[in-house]
Design a protein that fits this description.
The chain is of the alpha/beta class. The chain contains 12 helices and 14 strands. The protein has a single domain, classed as TIM Barrel (Alpha-Beta Barrel), CATH 3.20.20.70. Strands 3-4-7-8-9-10-13-14 form an 8-stranded parallel β-barrel, surrounded by 4 helices. The longest helix has 16 residues.
Length: about 350
């Protein structure tokens, strides 16, 4: 059955990639809304124990769907049938927002990369609540929250309090209409932390990758401030700001394989500077199981992916599980719990 699934996407991928990226995205969303992949879902089990714990929540495996694909909870039931250990919905805004002008996407196929300038479109927290409330999911659900002000974030958390207890604060997306983020204004960051102080246990702060020593110092300064105020969970990293004239606003966020070394370095820096009291989700350029192995070995409690779903198809988790298991066996690890943080 695995072979038939892989062969199926090998046929479908050239067709999808022959379409303009925005159209291919819309087609994939249409397919997930109609749960076309559900009848092909894989029912097999991992050979090794891949379960782990993230912020006190047990996961069947360490792979999560990153924010950005299931933006409004419209396809949550469909994506959770594909083997993910957890899933992230959003980013969700307090009120509806159309996002940036199209085109939204540019492929960097040779580099296994993708640039997006969606601008955080959202149907708003009320719509997302209506989509998620009726669901009975088999995997933990996290909601990614975004906005321009502290009040925006708090309004989303208040609206969706009944549908999830796990939050990811998107503080660093480069695709806002202004291009500015909370990371560029420490005073606004402090204000946001004060507003969120009532529930830091299951709350992750999503920060940007950095390419310079100054960027490293700035990001670690923010993280240290958060830790001192009781926030010890982070998602590393967001997309990397780049310019591209083919996009509707001429700039966007780079994801995919080029991001992996930056995300891995940030993870190692955080563990070195902040110690073992923090909990990190590794995200950025994880395309293969061996890359997931590196992230977990470097201390990530779990990993998220999105571009890999686009590049490798809807059964990517099953492929990643087999590849992770193969790497673990070759390196003499018998479980994910044994693997996590082994190289620290």
């Amino acid at each position: 059955m695995i072979t038939s699934q892989m062969d199926f996407y090998q046929v479908l991928r050239p067709l999808l990639f022959s379409l303009p990226p925005d159209m291919a995205h819309d087609v994939s969303q249409w397919a997930f809304r109609r749960r076309l992949w559900a009848r092909l879902s894989f029912e097999g089990k991992a050979e090794l124990p891949l379960d782990t714990t993230l912020a006190g929540t047990d996961l069947s495996n360490p792979f999560g769907l990153a924010a950005g694909f299931d933006k409004n909870g419209d396809i949550t039931a469909a994506v959770t049938s594909l083997g993910f250990g957890f899933t992230v919905v959003g980013s969700v805004r307090a009120a509806p927002h159309p996002g940036n002008p199209r085109p939204w996407f540019v492929r960097r196929t040779r580099a296994d990369g993708l640039v997006n300038s969606m601008g955080l479109p959202s149907r708003g927290a009320a719509h997302v609540k209506g989509q998620l409330e009726p669901l009975s999911l088999k995997v933990p659900l996290m909601v990614s929250v975004t906005g321009e002000t502290t009040d925006d974030f708090l309004r989303v958390c208040h609206e969706l309090k009944g549908v999830t207890t796990h939050w990811e604060m998107n503080l660093s997306c480069p695709n806002t209409s202004t291009g500015r983020t909370f990371e560029e204004d420490l005073e606004s960051f402090r204000e946001l932390l004060n507003g969120l102080r009532s529930h830091p246990q299951h709350l992750f702060l999503k920060l940007t990758p950095y390419e310079t020593e100054r960027g490293r110092e700035r990001t670690l300064e923010m993280a240290s401030l958060a830790v001192r105020r009781g926030f010890k969970n982070f998602t590393l990293c967001n997309t990397l700001a780049v310019e591209d004239d083919r996009l509707g606003i001429g700039r966007g966020g780079l994801s995919g394989r080029p991001l992996f070394p930056l995300a891995l370095k940030a993870l190692r820096d955080f563990n070195q500077e902040l110690g073992d009291e923090i909990s990190v989700i590794g995200v950025g350029g994880i395309i293969t199981g061996s890359q997931a192995f590196e992230m977990l070995n470097a201390g990530a409690k779990a990993v998220e992916l999105l571009t890999a779903l686009i590049l490798r198809g809807p059964f990517v988790v099953e492929k990643l599980i087999r590849e992770l298991e193969s790497t673990m066996k070759a390196k003499d690890f018998s479980s994910v719990r044994e693997l996590i943080g082994h190289s620290i």
